[in-house]
Design goal:
Length: 186
Amino acid sequence: MGETAEIPGPEGSEHVVARLRRHGRVLVLPALLLIAVAGVTAYAVPWLDEGWPQLAAIVAGALLVVLGALLPYLAWLSSRTTITTRRVIVRRGLFVRVRRELWHRSGYDVQVTRSWLQRSAGSGDVRLETGHEVAVVLRDVPKPLSVQAALHELMAQAHALGGPAVGPAARPAAFAPADTVSWGGR
């Protein structure tokens, strides 16, 4: 999580705190499937009759490898979460890309959920509740308690540096109530 890179922004520089993906253990089953299909196909093809039976075995093996190993690997590779000093950027999607950003200034609730398997692997789910209907869930993140602590610290820094304003006293001078014009009023 100690990566630092600068992202130029309109109000100065934004530093990358961490780049996260799902834990690598999600690729264990696709890797085992790849090994098993390659072994079975290599063993079975010479025993089959020449012609379409061998071709069918090779095509079936290739289809299993593509669907069971290649697509999960590409899906894992195409989803990434970047935590910067100002925001959390979540990118997901293999065929349709979805990008969601959460600003630390706006505030959100951070919750960590870990199953027994995740605890043994050192991972967990980090849920970011923003107050909207759909929460952002970072699934199977390595070191979720460190991620939670970092997010709490970044939110505290964002609020200390001029986070969201609450109440009429915190409004910018340009939006003072005396300057408000009511359209259609008498």
